Amino acid sequence: MRKLIVTTFITLDGVVQAPGGPGEDDEGAFAFGGWTVPFFDEHLHEVMDETMGKPFDLVLGRKTYDIFAAFWPSASEEEGAKPLNEATKHVASRSRPELSWERSVLLEGDVPTAVAALKEQDGPELQVHGSGNLVKTLQRAGLVDEWQLITFPVVLGTGKRLFDPAAPVRLELVRSSVSGSGVVVGRYRTAGEVVTGTFGA
C-alpha cells in the first residue's frame, strides 16, 4: 500500500494561502502572498531536496497544479525540476481541464474514492504539496498517512487555514528540525483517535 504524505508551508496561526509569492492566490483580498520567502534558507532547501529525492507521484488540487505547470516544465534541473517533471501528476478538479504537463492525469469521479484506490496500487509514495482544499478533503476522509508541516514564525491573522474544517485525529511526531531562520519542520504520522484526559484528582 502506498503512503500519502502531505507537505505544506504553514504560519503559526494555521494559514497556508499563497506561500510562494504575490498573485499566487489573492482570494479574499489576501495581501501577504510570498510570506515564506524571507525565511527560506539552506536548511529548508535541504528538506525539500530530501523530500523529493526519492521516487514519488503527486496528488494535486487544480490551483496548485496550474501554478506548478506554469513553472516546472521549463525549469532547469538545478532548480529541482527533474523529479517533479518525471512524477505522475494526479489532479483533482471539478471540471475537465486540459492537463498539458507531461504525465498528468485527471482523478475521475469521487476524489476520496479515487485517491483511496491510488493508495492500494503498487508504486512510489504519493505526495501532496499545497492544494489546501484537497488536503482538507483527504484529511476528513482519513487518507493522510503522514504530515510534513513546515511552520514559519509569522502570524498573518487572515487567509485560508489548513485545518478548517478538519476531522479530529491524533498525530505522532516522527522527527523535527529547526532552520537558522526559525522555521520548524515537523514530520508527523497519523496515530488514531484523539485521546483526552484530566489533570484533576
Mind explaining what this structure looks like?
The chain has a single domain, classed as 3-Layer(aba) Sandwich (Dihydrofolate Reductase, subunit A), CATH 3.40.430. The protein is built from five helices and eight strands; from the N terminus they run E-H-E-H-H-E-E-H-E-H-E-E-E. It has helices at 42-51, 62-69, 81-86, 111-120, 132-140, and strands spanning 4-11, 56-61, 89-92, 104-106, 125-129, 146-152, 171-178, 184-190. It has an eight-stranded mixed sheet, sandwiched between helices. The radius of gyration is 17 Å and the shape is globular. The N and C termini lie far apart (44 Å).
List keywords for this structure.
201 residues, alpha/beta, Dihydrofolate Reductase, subunit A, 8-stranded mixed beta sheet, 5 helices, 8 strands
**Spatial order of strands in the largest sheet:** 4-3-2-5-1-6-8-7
Between the first and last Cα atoms, what is the distance in angstroms? Answer: 44 Å
Strand content: 15-25%
Number of strands: 8
CATH topology: Dihydrofolate Reductase, subunit A
Category from helices, strands and their pairing: alpha/beta
On the 0-100 scale, what is the average pLDDT? 95
What does the largest sheet look like?
8 strands, mixed
- Can you identify the CATH superfamily? Dihydrofolate Reductase, subunit A
What's the CATH first level?
Alpha Beta
Query: How many structural units, i.e. domains?
Result: 1
Report the radius of gyration as a whole number of Å: 17 Å
